[in-house]
Write a structure and sequence with these properties.
The chain has about 190 residues and is α+β, with helices and mostly antiparallel strands. The chain has one domain: Alpha-Beta Complex (tt1808, chain A), CATH 3.90.1570. The radius of gyration is 17 Å and the shape is globular.
């Protein structure tokens, strides 16, 4: 049976990465989780400030064989799964010019009002299935960072720090981050 199209939306089949290529350049983020399309609006000021601060903190201590990228940079592990973590860390040898075709070492998601359920459930489960070794969730409102690490194929929360507490982790490399400092000069 051939899938039909209605207004560019696939009918009778899961979305694929080919369908993502046809999505409009309208400021939204388009991602796929097991063929399900996830559309997120453009992030706000606090979100972007935290992404920038996490990116700088990770990049400052990243080894020469690893790279830190902000979204949009695709993690495409199949024809029906393509995610764009807010920040990712990947091995040099795993990257292509356009995307990361394997699980990153670290995926970081910064919560937005529209992304909370997706980031804490769907994306977390997708990263777990991909084999992303470390997954961080940053909440700009608290501010806080929850750290999950893969153990026997399942995520275990190994840390949660809030406010002025210091997050100190070893994976994918040693780094220390203070949640309130991620807001820079923005009021908590």
């Amino acid at each position: 049976m051939t899938a039909t199209r209605s207004a560019g939306i696939p009918q009778g089949r899961p979305f694929t990465v080919d369908d993502l290529e046809a999505m409009p350049d309208d400021g939204n983020r388009y991602e796929l989780i097991d063929g399900m399309l996830v559309v997120s609006p453009a992030p706000g000021m606090r979100h972007q400030k935290i992404v920038a601060k996490v990116l700088v903190a990770l990049d400052a201590v990243c080894s020469d064989r690893l790279h830190v990228f902000p979204a949009p940079f695709a993690v495409r592990t199949s024809t029906t799964t393509e995610l764009q973590p807010d920040v990712l860390v990947a091995r040099d040898e795993d990257l292509t010019e356009k995307l990361l075709p394997v699980a990153p070492l670290l995926a970081v998601e910064v919560l937005s009002p529209s992304s909370v359920i997706n980031d804490l459930n769907n994306k977390k489960a997708a990263y777990e299935r991909m084999g992303v070794a470390s997954y961080w969730v940053v909440d700009p409102q608290a501010p806080s960072i929850a750290v999950f690490e893969l153990s026997d194929g399942r995520y275990e929360q190994i840390a949660e720090v809030k406010g002025t507490d210091v997050l100190s982790v070893e994976r994918p490399f040693p780094v220390r981050i203070v949640p309130t400092e991620l807001l820079g000069t923005l009021a908590p």
